[in-house]
TrEMBL record:
Gene3D superfamilies: lambda repressor-like DNA-binding domains (1.10.260.40). Residues 7-61 form the HTH cro/C1-type domain. CDD domains: HTH_XRE. PANTHER family: HTH-TYPE TRANSCRIPTIONAL REGULATOR XRE, TRACRIPTIONAL REGULATORY PROTEIN-RELATED-RELATED. This is HTH cro/C1-type domain-containing protein. The keyword DNA repair does not apply. The lineage of its organism: Bacteria, Bacillati, Actinomycetota, Actinomycetes, Pseudonocardiales. It comes from Pseudonocardia hydrocarbonoxydans.
Length: 204
């Protein structure tokens, strides 16, 4: 695609009007119309700002082919956490929705009952170079204060991810544990088991 087509397509994909994009970029709406019509091209500095506003790289804006992983869909997450010093493994269903490099994710089920430390949550991550997910999470049940950060490494085909979370938890203000994402419960549990066994092996 040519740059004008990329701008128009990506803006539409994000549900933005020409006025919305113009406001983010700091130019007049008529200028965005000219860019999209192919009448003129933005300067490099404006192109960088447009790319940031659209959540794409400058190469993508220029029309270079990319192979962006799309993580949208139903997934399973499994977290290693603790309650009263006892390890809790919590596999449960989540839903992810990706727009550009931003992935919103929300727990569909608790997995572990409330009395066992389970809660529903939501968060947001950014995809970096189709290799890494970094972001945050927060409990979306009023009485639960859990929140923190997440870091995952992605499988090269985007079929699963493993990493760690760090945050405020039932057992303290700075707690960390393993995390895994996969398409099925069996796979996410297997990934978690491997993370834990590898950690034990390296510690012995």
């Amino acid at each position: 695609m040519e740059m004008n087509e990329v701008i128009r397509h990506r803006r539409s994909e994000l549900g933005m009007s020409q006025g919305d994009l113009a406001a983010k970029v700091g130019v007049d709406r008529r200028q965005i119309r000219r860019y999209e019509a192919g009448e003129t091209q933005p300067t490099l500095s404006v192109a960088k700002t447009i790319a940031r506003a659209l959540g794409i790289s400058i190469d993508e804006l220029a029309g270079d082919e990319t192979h962006r992983i799309d993580l949208t869909g139903d997934w399973w997450a499994c977290w290693q956490s603790w309650k009263d010093g006892v390890e809790v493994l919590n596999p449960h269903e989540i839903r992810m929705s990706q727009r550009g490099d931003t992935v919103e994710f929300v727990a569909v089920t608790r997995g572990t009952p409330v009395e066992g430390g389970g809660y529903t949550w939501q968060g947001e991550m950014r995809v970096w170079d189709n290799e890494v997910l970094m972001g945050w999470y927060v409990a979306n049940e009023g009485a639960i204060r859990s929140k923190g950060t997440v870091y995952f490494t992605l499988h090269q085909h985007g079929v699963n991810a493993v990493g760690r979370w760090v945050g405020l938890s039932y057992d303290g203000p700075i707690i960390t544990g393993w995390g895994a994402l996969a398409k099925t419960k069996d796979e996410v549990v297997a990934l978690m088991d491997k993370l834990r066994s590898d950690e034990k092996a390296s510690a012995s």
